[in-house]
From TrEMBL:
UniProt keyword annotations, A-Z: Aromatic hydrocarbons catabolism, Isomerase, Manganese, Metal-binding
SUPFAM superfamilies with a match to the protein in the record: Enolase C-terminal domain-like, Enolase N-terminal domain-like
NCBIfam families noted in UniProt: mucon_cyclo
Name of this protein: Muconate cycloisomerase family protein
GO biological process: amino acid catabolic process; peptide metabolic process
GO molecular function: chloromuconate cycloisomerase activity; manganese ion binding; muconate cycloisomerase activity; racemase and epimerase activity
Organism: Enterobacter soli
Family stated for the protein in its record: Belongs to the mandelate racemase/muconate lactonizing enzyme family.
Cofactor field: Mn(2+)
Keyword Isomerase in record: yes
Residue ranges of domain Mandelate racemase/muconate lactonizing enzyme C-terminal in the record: 146-244
SMART domains in the record: MR_MLE (SM00922)
InterPro entries named in the record: Chloromuconate_cycloisomerase (IPR013370), Enolase-like_C_sf (IPR036849), Enolase-like_N (IPR029017), Enolase_C-like (IPR029065), Mandel_Rmase/mucon_lact_enz_CS (IPR018110), Mandelate_racemase_C (IPR013342), Mandelate_racemase_N_dom (IPR013341)
Length: 371
């Protein structure tokens, strides 16, 4: 059944975080969600979200640029047109717009939501069908203070909300970062999986030293230790150490995944709908990884509930050997959905209703939307 797109509206929504979230390149106190509403024929409405981290400090598209790309270039291409599915939608977008995967991800998500609602099926069904109803979710400890992180980790373990943690390092001296990671590992106990994300902050020499120390200290996974362009360096690290590497910034699309795997990379890929251009595109990278024997991880750009749910529908259709980090909504003080997602026992449930299976709260959208 083809879906005819009638109009597309877009908002920048600013929501404060529950505490400062410190990464190697920025400290976040607020998250900006670019929210898209796609109105289709027969009154069907689809919603999508594109979210990045720290303006332009993480990726090449800022929230303002995402909104502008949608309103100025992508919406005029799509409005008034009918599409049989996300493949046709992507063909049209890619024929006239290079890159801009965050903007395309919001539109692909909104289209899938609309198509799912029109057909009366969840988005996961459009993506191949869910294998899992609930997915594991870790939490990132990133207050910037070792003792505060330990306190936060212990509280979340006691509440049973998470049982695995990722630490953000790379902003400080290597010795300080290693001490920080190993102190948290010792305080939270051997049963708890501790991973680190360096967000590209080290050069290869520092990474060699850091990987050895983190491996000896029992850290389970090291994410993106060196710059995204250093493909050969990432392959070398993955082959030299037993602690696995998680490629994040280095692997956005299936083409990146293919190049790394062909070079002999071993480890895992962090899938993110925004990096790839939408849930369907992210699953194409998953297929390349599966073909190459590379493990999978469900990644977040710290999206609100809308972007998180779009990802969950995709991640539910594949086996994620390293679980997911889809905790974005829990980092925000508020959200724009009527019913929050169900996070408990280290997991989150994938909604079962038609489309994305969540409802937008129009009052909240208006309240948080930038004027
Ligand atoms: C990233 O690079 O992984 C995901 C979790 C988190 O705390 O930050 C993001 C970005
Ligand atoms: Mg990362």
């Amino acid at each position: 059944m083809s879906i005819t797109i009638e109009s597309i509206a877009c908002w920048l929504v600013d929501i404060p975080t529950i505490r400062p979230h410190k990464l190697s390149m920025t400290t976040m106190g607020c998250q900006t969600l670019t929210i898209v509403r796609m109105t289709c024929a027969q009154g069907v409405v689809g919603w999508g979200e594109a979210t990045t981290i720290g303006g332009l400090s993480y990726g090449a598209e800022s929230p303002e640029a995402i909104k502008s790309a949608i309103e100025t270039y992508l919406a005029p291409l799509l409005c008034g047109q009918s599409f049989s599915g996300p493949a046709a939608l992507a063909e049209t977008m890619n024929a006239s717009v290079k890159g801009n995967t965050f903007a395309k991800s919001a539109l692909e998500t909104a289209f899938l939501d609309a198509q799912g609602k029109a057909l009366g099926v969840p988005v996961s069904t459009l993506l191949g069908g869910a294998l899992y109803e609930r997915l594991p979710v870790l939490w990132t400890l990133a207050s910037g203070d070792t003792n505060k992180d330990i306190e936060e980790g212990k509280r979340l373990l006691a509440e049973g909300r998470h049982n695995a943690f990722k630490l953000k390092i790379g902003a400080r001296e290597l010795a300080t970062d290693v001490r920080h990671a190993l102190a948290i590992k010792a305080a939270l106990g051997d049963e708890v999986s501790i991973r680190v994300d360096v967000n590209q902050a080290w050069d290869l020499t520092t990474a060699m030293k850091g990987m050895r120390q983190l491996q000896d200290g029992g850290i389970d996974l090291v994410e993106q230790p060196i710059p995204l362009w250093d493909t050969q360096g990432l392959i070398t690290l993955s082959q030299r150490f037993e602690v696995p590497i998680l490629a994040d910034e280095a692997v956005a699309t299936r083409h990146d995944g293919y190049a790394l795997a062909r070079g002999g990379f071993t480890g895992a890929y962090a899938l993110k709908i925004a990096k790839a251009g939408g849930p369907v595109q992210a699953l194409k990278l998953a297929q390349v990884a599966q073909a190459a024997g590379v493990a999978l991880y469900g990644g977040t750009m710290l999206e609100g509930s809308l972007g998180t749910v779009a990802s969950l529908h995709a991640w539910s259709t594949v086996r994620m050997q390293w679980g997911t980090e889809m905790f974005g909504p829990l980092l925000l003080k508020d959200d724009i959905v009527v019913r929050p997602l169900d996070f408990s026992h280290g997991q989150v449930s994938v909604p079962k209703g038609p489309g994305l299976g969540i409802e937008i709260d129009d009052d909240k959208l208006r309240h948080y939307a930038r004027q």
